[in-house]
Amino acid sequence: MYSMGSPVREPRRRSGLGAAGIALVAVLALACGAGGGLAVTKIAGGGKTEVITKTVAATPAEGQPAAAVSAPKSWTDVVKQVGPGVVTIINHQAAQQGFFGAVPGGTAEGTGFVISKKGYLLTNNHVIAGAQTLQVVFADGKKTPAHLVRADPTQDLAVIQVDVPVKTVLKFGDSNALAPGEPVLAIGSALGEFRNSVTSGVVSALGRTLQESSSVQLQDLIQTDAAINQGNSGGPLLNSRGQVIGINTAVNRGQTGGTDVFGLGGSSVVAEGLGFAISSSTAQNIAHQLMQDKPTAFLGVKFQPVTQQFATYYNLPQGAYVVEVEGSSPASDAGLKARDIITKVDGKDVRGTNSLAQIVSAHKPGDKVTLTVWSNGKTSDVTVTLGKAPKQ
Questions:
Q1: Are 46 and 251 in contact (CB under 8 A)?
Q2: What pTM was estimated for this model as a whole?
Q3: How far is CA 305 from CA 156, 353, 354, in A?
Q4: Residue 32 pLDDT > 50, yes or no?
Q5: How far apart are CA 253 and CA 24, in angstroms?
Q6: pLDDT at 60 over 80
């Protein structure tokens, strides 16, 4: 798809959140030598980024809309309702060639959740990346093999499938209806060891952007203070009705200085309670296509949302500020360039909950869209044919 920067592998480039400390949480255990083992936490960027498994939203698999609004439940009721549908994913990796010869393959653990009665599960791409085989552990301890259906590395989402009956299917909620201060609950395999751990908090902010790697930038993220730990990646962030409104993906442990794309400086601090989840409004569109083993739409830009605050301060229009245009992409073919601002797509304003990420994710490769682009003080319309996101 497109991206606006990438979570955590470019510590000096802040996506409005600061630079280094962003971590994707997946626990990696590497066997080392004949008699011993070395437990290693997968770090994404100069030791500043921890890999946090993502949590995706509820039932896109069936292609159904969000469930009808129901009465709020207690957290105990929510856990009883959805807990059996949250799983631990074990990524068995192939042996690698090391400096002193072949190094035995290790395992990485993350989280996922059931989105279809056909055995489809949603998780983060970084949870299953590099897998030789995949195994799923259900809440009751039962284990079963799983296979990758399809992944979208640009959005850090993946769908896998198990060939056993599933009893509990999670449902998507409407992340566009969220408001800061709303209570939320996260379930995941903390540290890859404490499976189906439950933590709670609130929605801290909406519409955040993180640079996950040099090529992956996540948009329209939900910020929460619910504790997100290594191994939580791919797990669900739930509202009080037991609906998935986000996929837990990353944490920010602090900043190391630097500036964001608008020139605002950072500082060296240590932060807690900064977790991030992919919004269900974006994830369910992608998950539905991945379940059908279809490629997702790709634009090819990294961008920074221009909020009303930034627009007022810098005298710019609201929209998606293009930080970088990927080579040989639909965006580059259409003549887009860095510092352009995409203000509309097919006449729809790009702002607030109507983010560029959501709009693109609702399209298919090959679709033609009309972008309204502000460039050097002038606005014009550009027609772009969306491409295919790379397959895992």
A1: no
A2: 0.69
A3: 19, 11, 11
A4: no
A5: 11
A6: no
Catalytic residue among 3, 116, 126, 329: 126
User: What's the pLDDT tens digit per position in 183-197?
Assistant: 999 999 887 678 889
Q: Which domains does the chain have, with CATH numbers?
A: 13-287 (2.40.10.120), 295-388 (2.30.42.10)
What SS3 class is residue 65? coil
Q: Exactly one of 6, 213, 233, 279 is catalytic; name it.
A: 233
Tens digits of residue pLDDT in 104-117: 667 889 999 999 99
Active site residue 233: yes
Q: What is the DSSP letter of 2?
A: -
In terms of Cα–Cα distance, which of 258, 254, 263, 304 is closest to 12?
Answer: 258
Known active-site residue 156: yes
pLDDT at 71: 62
The answer, yes or no, to whether residue 225 has pLDDT greater than 50, is yes
Residues 332-354 have a mean pLDDT of 87
Cα angle 119-165-71, degrees, rounded to a multiple of 5: 75
> Which of 337-357 are b and which e, b meaning 16 or more Cβ less than 10 Å from the residue's Cβ?
eeebbbbbbeeeebbeeebbb
> Choosing from 15, 116, 152, 156, which is the catalytic residue?
156
